[in-house]
Amino acid sequence: MRDKKDNATFDLPGFEAAVPLAPSTIEVPRATTRRPRKTSLKQEQLELLDETDATGLPVWRRDENLDLTGLPIWAQA
């Protein structure tokens, strides 16, 4: 591979012209039959067990064993 602007560059190995393939190594494309399309399972919307608000999140319920962040309140020892 030579640079057009620089005549001092040398030819790099591996960039020579490719050797044509022998006829026995060329694969003949065979006629393919059309496969039936796989049908996917139909999806359905499942109802949640708890009530949801307008955003779709579960409705917040105050639990005496949880603080306002939802972490458990440890019992006094």
Quick recap:
The protein has no helix or strand. With 77 residues, it is mostly loops.
Describe this protein's structure.
The protein is low in regular secondary structure and 77 residues long. It is 0% helix and 0% strand. The protein has no helix or strand. The model has no long low-confidence stretch (mean pLDDT 77).
Helix/sheet category:
little secondary structure
What coarse outline follows from CA principal-axis ratios? elongated
Distance between the termini: 82 Å
Are there runs of 5+ residues with pLDDT below 50, and where? none
> How many strand elements?
0
**Main beta-sheet annotation:** none
Mean pLDDT across the residues is: 77
**If you compute it from the alpha carbons, what radius of gyration comes out, rounded to the nearest whole angstrom?**
36 Å
Tally of alpha and pi helices: 0
How large is the share of residues in beta strands?
under 5%
Q: Estimate percent helicity.
A: under 10%
